[in-house]
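Something for you to look into today, if you have time. Could you write out one complete protein record for me, on any chain you like? The space below this message is yours for that.
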Amino acid sequence: MIPQQTETLAGLEIACRFLYTAFHRAPEPGFLHPLVSDRLLDHWPVEEENLRTQAGLETMQQFLDEHTVNPLSLLKQDYNALFIGPNTLLAAPWSSVYLTEEQLTLTEPAMAVREFYRQYGVTIDTGENEPDDHIGLQFAFIAHLLGEALRAIDNEQSEQPWLCATAEFLTNHVLIWSSRLFELIRTHATTDFYRGLADLAEGSLQQLANLTGAEYLIVRLYR
């Protein structure tokens, strides 16, 4: 792998860890403060140009610039409505909801994701007994695979097994449904922060697909 590709790989690992936190946890002061005080979105770690990624970063930063005084309550309300409830979720974050007619969690797609994690020595245990196919957890797993690829490069070993695993995971478990999730977020979010996050995540997945050779398959979605 040429140095520029390695740099992109390292940047995408960091990006996926950020996206894990942004999707998997309700916003907290520790997450938001560096975005505001240090303008971290202006220093996004992936330089490869992608229109979705750039649009997402600009939209998120614009929200932060316009809501400098306590934006946390707005973001928590939006996050809960989209991903937590108690009402019907506006953008359910689990693949099973989109890939099964029953639109239930912990069904076959989630079990398939769990088995893929297991093959690479990863067990999800957040202490909440939650489905393994949450989009945030999927980003965390992708970051793990990318990290292993980078370690292989550092040890002068082939990174290809890890990149092939990333491509397979993206093709069969992430790209088949995530675009619909991001569409729902853009439609129902009440803050530009989460609308921008949807663009940022979708653009990052496009960059990952370009890097690894992952494919976009057409499957039936039920939501």
User: Anything to note?
Assistant: Residues 3-24 form the longest helix (22 residues). The chain has one domain: 3-212. The mean pLDDT is 95. The chain has ten helices and no strands.
